[in-house]
Amino acid sequence: MPTKQTAARFLMQATLGAGSGDIERACSAGLEGWIEEQFQVAPSVTHEEVHRHRAAGEHYEMHHAWWRQVLTADDLLRQRIAVALTEVFVVSEMSIEFVPWEMMKYYDDLGRLAFGNWRDILRMVSLSPLTGYYLSHLRNRKAYPALQRYPDENYAREIMQLFSIGLWELEQDGTRRRDAEGREIPTYGNADVMNFARVFTGLAYGGPLADTSRPADFMDAPADFGNPMKLWEEEHDRDAKRLLRGFRTPSFADAPGRRGIDDIEDALDNLFYHPNVGPFFGRLLIQRLVTSNPSAGFVGRVAAAFENNGRAVRGDMKAVIKAVLLDEEAVNPPADRSRSGRLHEPYLRYVRLARTFNARSADGSFRVSDHDTLESMNQILLNAPSVFNFFLPDYRPPGALAEAGLCAPEFQIMTSSTAVTSLNHYARMVSGGFGDDPAGPGAMRLDFSEELAVAGDPDALIGLLDLKLACGALGEETRAVLRAAYAEMPEGSTAEDRVRAMVQLVAISPDCAVME
Amino acid sequence: MSNIDKMEGAGNAGEQANCEGVGSTTVNSLLLNLAVAGGASAPSPGRGYKALVCLFLDGGNDSFNMLVPTEPGEFARYRAARGDLALPREGLLGLRGAAGADAARSFGLHPSLPRVRDLHDQGRLSFVCNVGTLVEPTDLAGLNGARARLPLGLYSHADQVMHWQTSIPDSRASVGWAGRAAEILQSMNRDNGISMNVSLSGTNVFQSGRSLVPYSITPDGAALLDGYSDPARPFFAKAVDSLLGQRYPNVLKQAYAGLTRDSIKSAGYFLDAWRRAPRVATAFPGTRLGKSLRGVAQGIAARDNLGARRQTYFVKAPGWDHHDEVLASQAAMLADVDASVAAFWTAMGELGLQDDVLLFTASDFGRTLSSNGKGSDHGWGGNQFILGGAHRGGRLYGSYPDDLSLGNGLDTGRGRLIPTLSVDAFFCELALWLGVGKGDIPAVLPNIGRFHDLNGAAAPLGFLN
């Protein structure tokens, strides 16, 4: 049975936030047992709720449904993976028409597929009209050389660079391969991009009204962001295409009965079976859940799980997730902690507080729109500034981190202003109501009943917050500072005053902001 | 100007490379590096003060309804192209006539812009016409023949916002041209950890350098840490200082602690400078934009306390993506711009700085001239304005298309117009005014050579006095 600290550290990686009950559950089930339990929980759904309320003419934002899910649904692991996947397979509300329930459908699809096969995620993403709109392969037409018009290359490039294989050929442990002269080897060139661009032609808005037998519907079918794109054969390039690593698709003239979707499936397979996917995707998932700078061994173990789940299946997300969360580097902090860990994402620090302290409103609603978190934290779900996400996986902050050769992606959105405004955001939710109705019946409030029960005992209070907010990682010096602060609180401070101040201080502390 | 030019001569690519190599997480040490590498000395009083204010109309202002041709033939073509989006001619606010080649033409402003019209007619404000992001000079034949190199993600918000701010539309980058300019000019300001690039709208590409981030403030000044200065809770600040002042063996914790501590301290410094400055008395609208521009004015009022000789300010006004409701919504939003910008101008008069501050608008793109039945969709070239006593106002710069008919020689479809002026040329003149030397312009605007001959006698647009 894992210790409470081990369980808390594990849940810090495997959930969006864990209360005492969650920690106890992971202790009794064991870490792997907890994961297996979570694999069995049915996916919660958010988009239908947004659709229903909006169809009834109510003001209802996609974040309202998301917050209800985070604070009430039981599929904790699935939600955590879905959020991580939104930061790999990025679409952003910032650049897409206002289609709230359809955005949540995309999010729900990521959650639904989170314990399936990676190949199905790539397929869903490639045929999503949101991706199609965002990365412009929606209504991408075959070449008309007479007009010197060629297919859009945007998705062809991004699916390779960001969604599957990355720019450089990798060893299975994630280090870059080198040729005989010691040079790094690009995974693809511009000719490959042009070939893949021809693969992703003929797709346009799907939905019940789009009829692929009507040529005009390719351009004229109504915008539909809630159904996968459909393929119009006459707009799809029918010539042979050269894929990566020597593979080709046949010319349609040589392959009777071949259809456009067959080209897309072949291209997705071509990427899926590329040896880079395991180490490339594995590192991204490790970075989101565990540490910014995983060892080559860690990446290699996750890549091996991607390659083969033990039953000769490639791309099994369950095996990949287990490999990430149950790795020795994830479960136990390393012996040398000077370079390990990651800065928690600012938005997820906020979400973690809400979930750890079981936020609720008096009227039972979950009206949190998060319109202000973009400004105060530079982050909000499904609103990255570009397909490159909020931050780059290889971002090295200038200074000590760069000199140490360390990546620290989350520092890219920590500015002189958000360094303070994010802390104020956390502090305000601790000291009062938050959400769209912070002073009314819809105000979301944190529940400190466990803390209030021990508010008179500083060591017990600090110990409880240490476990819940820092998985037992508060250093001796930090705890001494907290004890001194507690002792110096003004006479007449209420139990609530003491608890709130202590939560605020722990939330600010580097031991809480960074998981080693 | 000669002093500045001399200093900027040292601010070349080598210096910046050095900066990048030894940069640190704090602006402070960046400034030290700049000062050492560039040999810059403390600012001398003779250098004066200049601020460039970017008002970004986020979402894509339908600017062919902001500035409308009123010569009867041109107006008829405008009305035909715009259909149900055309403004009635009688409601337009006529601009004082242009001199010279354009004397036969006439223009009117959206009825929500009476103060902007007055500023134009008083010679304080000008329009920059059909300006947009370009990789190279582009025409319809090149575009239809797929020969032209085009901005990445043309017609897309994220990309066009990025390109307007980087001025490098052939790549996707996160370093803006004001960020690059600051790497050259920052050393004119006191070395106090406050960037010369100040944002009222948080992080933005425009003001981000390679290792320099904009200093973000709110309309009330810098954000202080809640409770940090509360006299009833001295334990709180003491504990925060201790938590952030410890030495952490883990480098990520140390970096987080250092950045947070520096940010809390600079906020205190900034706010002190802000509060000691003369209080701007001019009344501003109570809108978000009005408050933000009041914040800019108050920040400018604090310039001497901050030791700032050069600043840029960034204000983003959201909500201009009028796929629907363009007529009603844009009318209200332009009225807000009109009142807020006019108040800002009055405030600059109050501070005696009308000749030292230039405000310019920018926006993702212009919009389709044709209607989608409710509004307009994403376009390309659009119209902007500049305001300030340092420029020759009351004019139209660039070239306003004389034929807005659908299918005109610039129309890529539905009245998305190919820009006839690149943002590079527009920004080049602004950067020169701010004090970037000619020799440093290519470091700030790498594509400028495709649009303007820096060695020639002519200015890119010629709006500077």
Q: What can you see in these coordinates?
A:
The complex is a heterodimer of chains A (516) and B (465). Chain A is mostly helical and 516 residues long. Chain A has a domain at 342-515. Chain A has 26 helices and 8 strands. Chain A has helices at residues 4-14, 20-29, 31-40, 47-55, 62-72, 76-86, 100-112, 118-127, 129-134, 154-164, 190-199, 217-220, 260-272, 277-289, 296-307, 317-325, 328-331, 346-356, 373-377, 400-403, 418-431, 449-453, 458-470, 476-488, 495-508, 510-513; strands at 203-204, 230-231, 241-242, 248-249, 342-343, 360-361, 444-445, 514-515. In chain A, strands 1-2 form a two-stranded antiparallel sheet. In chain A, strand 3 and strand 4 (248-249) form a beta hairpin. The model of chain A has no long low-confidence stretch (mean pLDDT 95). Chain B has 465 residues and is of the alpha/beta class. Chain B has one domain: Alkaline Phosphatase, subunit A (3-Layer(aba) Sandwich). Helices cover 37% and strands 12% of the residues of chain B. Chain B has helices at residues 2-10, 13-22, 27-38, 72-82, 114-121, 140-144, 157-166, 177-185, 234-245, 251-276, 288-301, 303-306, 326-350, 423-434, 441-444, and strands at residues 50-57, 67-69, 93-94, 107-109, 125-132, 197-199, 215-216, 310-317, 357-363, 382-387, 396-398, 421-422. In chain B, helix 2 (13-22) runs antiparallel to helix 3 (27-38). The radius of gyration of chain B is 23 Å and the shape is globular. Chain B starts with a helix and ends in a 21-residue tail after the last helix. The chains are: A mainly alpha (516), B alpha/beta (465). Chains A and B meet through strand 5, helix 20, helix 21, helix 24 and helix 25 of A and helix 3, helix 7, strand 7, helix 9 and helix 10 of B.
